[in-house]
Write a structure and sequence with these properties.
single chain, 138 residues, Transcription Regulator spoIIAA, four-stranded parallel β-sheet, three-stranded antiparallel β-sheet, 4 helices
């Protein structure tokens, strides 16, 4: 594939230098799995970037922080083609945390049952799936 691959890591705030991404060869694929936190100003910076790249930007492995913003800001989710998210899961018995990469399409995905590698109990999502994937049509 031609284009650019960008991995964002850490906090996305008003300090984030995202302007250069708009000048990269397109399409641009954003790996957002490393984003731990986004504040309001950072969200607006991302929305502006996504609007500049409309039609030629894709998001892979959106972290829970990014998914929260997708659910809060319709402009963000309307312009960003999300291909996959990171879904946090937890074992209800041993409280081991797991992260599951989930491919998404145009509607909310069905998540197959996953078992804890430590104790074999079915894993549970950190929050209801309907709420987590509310940026996608049902």
């Amino acid at each position: 594939m031609t284009g650019s691959f960008v991995s964002l890591v850490g906090e996305v705030t008003e300090q984030a230098a995202l302007e250069g991404i708009a000048r990269l060869p397109r399409p641009v694929v954003l790996d957002l799995s490393g984003v731990r936190y986004i504040n309001t100003a950072g969200s607006l910076c991302l929305v502006r970037l996504v609007e500049q790249l409309t039609g030629s930007v894709f998001a892979d492995r959106c972290s829970p922080a990014v998914v929260r913003q997708l659910n809060l800001l319709p402009d963000f989710s309307d312009h960003l083609a999300v291909r996959s998210v990171v879904l946090p899961l937890e074992c209800p018995r041993c409280h081991t945390e797991h992260l599951l990469d989930v491919d998404v399409g145009r509607t909310r995905p069905t998540i197959p049952e996953r078992l804890c590698g430590a104790c074999g109990v079915p894993l549970e999502p950190d929050e209801p799936l309907d709420a987590y994937f509310s940026f996608l049509p049902a």
